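dumping this here before i forget
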Amino acid sequence: MTGAAGAPHRLDPAGGCPHADNARLLARGAVAPVVLPGGVDGMAVLGHEALKEFLAHPRVVKNARHFTALREGRIAPGWPLATFATVRGMTTADGDDHRRLRSLVSKAFTGRRVEELRPRVEELTAGLLDDLERAARDGGGVADLRAHFALPLPMGVICELLGVDAEFRDRLHHLSNQVVATDIGPERALAANRELLAVLGAVVEARTARPGDDLTSALIAARDEGGDRLSHEELIGTLVLMIIAGHETTLNLITNAVRALCGHRDQLARVLRGEASWSDAVEETLRWDAPVSYFPFRYPVGDLPLGGTVIPAGTPVLAGYSAAGRDRAAHGPDADLFDVSRPAEPGAARHLSLGHGAHYCLGAPLARMESAIALERLFTRFPGLDLAVPEAGLARGASFVGNSVQELPVRL
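structure:
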């Protein structure tokens, strides 16, 4: 709940819809002091222009050795956000380390490589639409689109890219969900992290025994070449990142886009008539209801003036993507409206929801392609698809990091 003017905003570990709080915080300024779970002081950058500056600022880093409270031992074991700070991989690396780790996986996400995946994404989508139709038939006309379509599509694609056997997939989704959750206690957080590392260790063992034409096998080869290309901890950390970012974000994006289009039938009709593209619908969803609300963490290496305030050195800072997407200073007085034909300013990014700067989302082309194909095939096959419960009745995800709902019951 937001406190009095100037008081830190206490983030709700249970998540919930972020937009009302975002509007109140943005009315106070582009940067806001926040209280993270466990009483940890932090900051959130909410305004579009401030966030754009912050994400590319040369004196803002990702390595947790710059996280003052963590370095001084003031963060309790089992802190629910610890994995975001401490996992060994490109999301917590800077400079040469970041470039080295990113280069090991970047070839799998080039525009050409992603386009080569299009037929497989289309094939998976077609099969999942059959599954969704069966689930609706078995469920009296209602099916959970999130469980039967929005989840298995990106999970299937990223696991095929990584060479993860089907036997591991359901468990990996459950565990990554726990890692992203911000409302779990220390014991569950520690247990989920231990099990996630164990499952990924088993994946690595399987691919070591049976190498294939997949990203995990390529990472294992890089690790085993010796030198300083990749440590075992970095290999596991990279897999953690690939699994979580490779499906959770796209899962939320597809879910939020379906909700937005069902709630704005006029906008859906414009796309179906060809007045806007499915890619336009994806981009407007990314802006209007970003799949990630507050992403942890970056740390200024010195006191940083930003957006009319100063962020103290060593503060854990959240990137407020969902707030920036509706910032009226950047998107105009109608920023709260969902408009698939919204014009972008010449030369300006329509949104920052996939990041900016050196850590821009590596999987952005894949997420965009998966989501556009998913929406086109879904609404072409089921043009009358609609929510089976009112939007207000949908339970929100238990996290202020991810931004979506837990289930999406629909009628086809």
